[in-house]
Amino acid sequence: MSAFHSVPAEYLNGADGLHLTPCVLGKIFSRQITVWNHADIVDLNPDANLPDRGIVMLHRKKGSSTTNFFTKYLHTATEDNCAADWPLGWGAALTLAAGDYADLSALQVKYPDVTGLWADDEAVTDAGGGVVTCEGSGQMASNLADIPFAIGYIDSGHGHDDGLSEVKLRNAAGTYLDSTEAGVEGIGAAAAAADFPATSAGNFETVDMLNQAGANTWPIVAASYLFVKRDMTPLGETAVAVKAFLEYAMSNEKGYSSTKGGQKFAADFNFVPLPQSLLDLNNAGIATLQLPEDTQPFQWEWSTDTTVGPQRNTLSCKRSNYETYALNSHGGRLEEVNEQVQMMVGELPHLTVNVAPSPAPPVVVEIDASDLVVQSDDSDDSDDSKKSDSNDAIAMVALVIAIVSLLLNIALLCRGNTAVSQNAAACATPQERRYSTHDDSIVPKP
Distance from CA of residue 230 to its chain's centroid? Predict the structure, then answer.
């Protein structure tokens, strides 16, 4: 996560971003610094032309993991050198509005490390800035985008996706950088420097990746955790699906086509994949999960080489089932038939055919470009005209019947292939077929 600001670029005067130290950042968020041209900020940004404008400080309202780690970073990074610059402690909520809390002591029952509260909301003015409480990360991002001269905190990926300007923070080694400059290596360095337990069954409560050493280490790094019961035997067949998901999430397989291991998608969402040491730790823990005896775990087919094949509970990066192939194939054929029907119908002239079967009164069959209409009529025509027009009408009716028959046959074929594929395609029975997953974008030859 990162601090983001909305100081217009013209006031940075071509400088390489807005530079801040954790001590100055602590003063800003505790409202000890309220204007952008404060001497402490100007000293860090000598090339900028910061205006005499108030700072609009944004913070989250309710309990938030982002607030928890951001305030813990401020506490960790300032406690040795400038503790007075950040006197509020740390926790998921620093406001009584986060719940039914009468005062700070009531809030400390749930968040014992909080030692102060965010400043009360202040109306935004040019001179004094202001304090704005944000409901969720979405409102934090929108306020940063809409309110000039503001500063707030948000997940780095979220901020960059929204085109926000990131503060260049000074890390523990004295390097000014933002999260994109730190990159995978700088964020991974924080994880490598942290003290993780030896197994997934250990205590992760003391894991701390904040303000770690390293020239290019990003100082605000946190991890998300999944808690899973080791004994999943009561879950039945759901247990194997849960284990398969965990295996997928911890996989860095390159896969084939659009299919790849979960870690390979991290960069798509501006996250960083786990280092191999943590993947090994997690996969070792996943291997200890207890599944029901009457279930079959999923197996993986990552390669395009022949390996597992279309077996029960097989997750393949390359295979599709015949049902999918057949439906896709018939979909194309139906479009071709429809085009041919429209072409033939468009070429048909408007026909008015008098048919006079005896002893019933004569009827007229009108055939236009899209329909057939039968109506009564008492007019008489020549015998030759009747015969000719009758033949045309009969031919047209036969054509329509043929087209309808073709469409019905194709529909029945689709249904038949579906029924067959349920028993003889990727899985042996409908029950087994529930546990087979395919990449439908990859269509095999029939």
Answer: 28
